[in-house]
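quick one before i forget lol
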Amino acid sequence: MPDAMEVSFVVNAGAVQVTTHPMARLLDVLRTTLHLTGTKEGCGEGECGACGVLLDGRLVNSCLVPIGQVNGSSVTTIEGVASGEQLHAVQQAFIDCGGAQCGICTPGMVLAAAALLDLNPSPSLDQIRIGLAGNLCRCTGYMRIFEAVVTAMRIKPAS
């Protein structure tokens, strides 16, 4: 592969090494090369949040991140949020509250909510709305998603 580079990083607590073009999207490397298909592509332009992952603990749209910038970093996808068989509090709350319908936005929404609760364990409803503002959902009308985040505040997060 011309202009390919070797990129080493951690995904869901496991070290990986891929050889690809440095401008390949993190989203494509996760889904195609690493077969982590939980991360979804919605718009491909960073507008919908469906491709959200945690990059060194910060929520990013993986469709906008060139893999060359990930070298030496740590990535958490929806597959890495749970602790073994124990769901993360946000995942459990999404189930309990009916916060997921078609599932396209769910991985990014769960990661956005988890990142929000890591920064602010007791956000107000307005802070929840702001924290999830980069994620679009066409199915739920958001109320069940907001309810899930409030519910997750009461559940002890997986460690």
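fyi The two ends are 40 Å apart (CA to CA).
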